[in-house]
Every structure is written in C-alpha cells, then in structure tokens.
Amino acid sequence: MKQSIISTNHLELTLAEVIAECERDRIFVLTDDNTVHKCWPKISSFLCLKRAQLITIDSDDKNKNLASLEYVWNAFQSGGATRHSLLINLGGGMVTDLGGFAAATFKRGINFINIPTTLLAMVDAAAGGKTGINFGGLKNEIGLFAQPNFVIIDAEWLESLDHANILSGYAEMLKHGLLSSRNMWAELIDIPTLAEIQPLIGPSIEVKERIVEADPNEHGLRKALNFGHTFGHAFEEWAMKRSPILHGYAVAFGLIAELYLSTILTGFPSADMYKTVQFIRENYGSLPITCNDYPELIDLMRHDKKNRGSQIKCTLLEQIGTPHLDYSLNENYIKEALDFSRFT
User: Fold this and answer.
1) Does the 163-341 domain belong in CATH 3.30.390.50?
2) For residues 288 and 98, what is the distance between their CA atoms, to the nearest angstrom?
3) pTM higher than 0.85, yes or no?
4) Residue closest to 121 by CA, chosen among 17, 213, 30
5) Distances (CA, A) of 307 to 154, 293, 312, 324
6) Which candidate, 82, 101, 126, 342, has a CA 20 to 30 Å from the CA of 2?
7) SS3 per residue for the chain
8) Which whole-number Å values give the CA distances from 135 to 62, 237, 328, in the listed order?
9) Catalytic residues
10) Residues 284 and 249 sit within 8 Å (Cβ to Cβ)
11) pLDDT on residue 253
12) Residue 181 and residue 334: Cα distance in Å, rounded?
C-alpha cells in the first residue's frame, strides 16, 4: 500500500477527513507518558476522537520492547478491537514504530495513522512503513514493513521540542541532503539557526518518500537511507548500556565514520566530508568511545540487518547524491573509521 503523507495547518479538519477514509468500528490512540501530557490534550476534544480509547506506554527507546508491545495488544483486546478498528499513533519514532508493529500484527493487521510529534519522526520514523521493536539489546531487531494509511505532518508540534530533540531530527535531514543534492546539503550545512528549519522539512520528507516509493521493501535503492546507520545503530546500542543518546545523535556520529570510509573507499570529496564533520562536531559533540570498545562495536555491527552472512554491509557515498550500496567492510576499515571518529 502506498503511503499518504499530508502536511497541514488545520489538524482537526485533516484528521477528521482521513479518519472518514479509513475503515473503523473503534478508534484507539497510542501515546507515551510524554505525549499523553503534551500532545493528547491538544486533540482530545476533537469531535472525530470523541469515542477514542487512549493507550499510554512508557517513553524512552529502552521501552520499545516486547513488554510494551504486549501491553498494546492487551489494550486492543480489552477495548474490543476487531480487524476493522483504527489505531492513531501520536508521538515520536518510538510510538510510531511500536504502534505500527502492533497494528500490523493484531488480528493480522488493522488500519493505522501516524501523527508524528517530533522532528525525527516527521522526517524519518513515521513514514516509510518500517515498524518494529528492539530485542536482545539490538535496535529494531523484530519488525515488518507495514505502510500507515496516512501520515499527518503538523509542524506546530515542534514548538514543544527541546534543542536536543530538534538536533536529533536534523541529523536525518542532513542524511537526506547528502543523499539528494549539493544544493540541499549546502542549505542544511549553512543554516544560520535551527529556528529556521521549517522550510527544509518538506523537501527532506520528499527525499525519503521518493526513495521509499521506488523501493518500498528495501531490495535496492532504499538501502541508501541506511547511510550513517551501520555505525550509528552500533553507537546507539553501545550507549544504551551506559548513557543513552538520542537516535539522531547516534546517526550523526555514524555519518562521521561512514563519510570517512566514503572518502577513502569510494572517492567522496574530502572537502565535503570535512565540512560535514565540522558541522556535526560543532552541534553534536562527540561520543566517548575508546579503542577498548571496538570489539563490542564490531560485534554489534555483525548483527546489523543489512548484512549478508558474515559480511558487514554499509551504504557509502561516491559524491553527494550518489550512494554506493552494499559495500563490504572488513575489521581494519571499521577500526580506522572508529579512530577517525574519535580523533577528528
């Protein structure tokens, strides 16, 4: 099913219209313990949600797990959900990932709508049809592709986000710029202040939308969207056991490593690499890994979903807008990239 992404300044009207297009005998709204206080009160009075049943799970990526998934399934059962019910996911990527998976698996699939409330979810997690949960200490280890009936983007939600969460989403936008064009990349790198990001959100969403429509199940081109994520997911999983970091920060640090490998392995221009790395360092800082962490990070990469057999696969760039898919990395190159990430 093709995803339908709608940007709006009139959320109540838009939501009523899309609900009317979805089969529904009951409506459920999934929130976490942040969005239930910050976001749900803004829409709970909508007439189209008058009989909606609210489900709230614990926030934080560590709770994107089987226990939370089972809690949602139980809420569906106790609330009388059928195959004709509708779920509305109101929240960030954790809510849209887990909620989408819950909807896609309950009674072999019910309709769901995503209303992303973070920048990261707007430009990445809520659209594209990837759903899932973490398992065994690994990111998104269990999941499936399931397209939401609609994704509703309302930039007004961003007013409640702190600077760190804006930066987290901006890392995915930066990735989209690197995959798209020099002009888009330059706009993102040279932005005077993050308060001016709103005009850049739509183009960023369009980059992902074009790629997903061409390759919805990630057999080819969609692998480009994994740029920064082979190292990024390993960094995030490593940090989860120590001092957790936001997903976008992990991706930003992953971009540093994978841009370096792109420069030495696929000819990516070093000037563009260093300019991007400087932007990331100035805005995201660094991750306190040491050489003693390398074996653990490499082991985490061996569990990456992009791999084939024992080969660690990675998306690199030949130049801005030209990805090189399925590049096989050996341990020496990985260690070299980790060294670069630490000392540059």
Assistant:
1) no
2) 29
3) yes
4) 30
5) 36, 21, 5, 15
6) 82
7) CCCCEEECCCHHHHHHHHHHHCCCCCEEEEEECCHHHHCHHHHCCCHHHCCCEEEEECCCHHHCCHHHHHHHHHHHHHCCCCCCCEEEEEECHHHHHHHHHHHHHHHHCCEEEEEECCHHHHHHHCCCCEEEEEECCEEEEEEEECCCCEEEECHHHHHHCCHHHHHHHHHHHHHHHHHHCHHHHHHHHCCCCHHHCHHHHHHHHHHHHHHHHHCCCCCCHHHHHHCCHHHHHHHHHHHHCCCCCCHHHHHHHHHHHHHHHHHHHCCCCHHHHHHHHHHHHHHHCCCCCCHHHHHHHHHHHHCCCCCECCEEEEEEEEECCEEEEEEEECHHHHHHHHHHHHHC
8) 10, 11, 25
9) 108, 130, 172, 208, 218, 222, 226, 229, 233, 247
10) yes
11) 98
12) 27
Which residues have a Cβ under 8 Å from the Cβ of 246 and sit 6 or more positions away? 120, 164, 165, 167, 168
Structure-block tokens of residue 179 = 């995959």
> CA-based diameter of the chain, in Å?
59
Start-end of CATH 3.40.50.1970 domains in the chain: 4-160
> Measured on CA atoms in the order 134, 136, 139, 143, is the torsion positive or negative?
negative
**Per-residue pLDDT tens digits for 111-151:** 999 999 999 999 998 888 899 999 988 888 999 999 999 99
Read off the tokens for 223: 């692998």
Burial of 50 (0-12, 13-18, 19+ CB in 10 A): exposed
The residues of the chain that CATH labels 1.20.1090.10 are 163-341
Answer yes or no: are the C-beta atoms of 87 and 146 closer than 8 Å: no
Token couple for 35: 């969005």
Stretches in the chain below the pLDDT threshold 50: 1
**pLDDT computed for residue 250 by the predictor:** 98
Residue 53 has, within 13 A of its CA and on its CB side, a CA count of: 18
Match 């260690």 to its residue by tokens: 335
